[in-house]
Amino acid sequence: MTGGLGLEHQAVLGLPPVEFVHLAADLGCPSIGEGFVVQPDADVRRYEADLDVMAELEASKVNVVSFDPDLGRTFDAFGQLAEMAAARGMRSTVEFARPCR
Question: Strand, helix or coil at 36?
Answer without folding.
Answer: strand
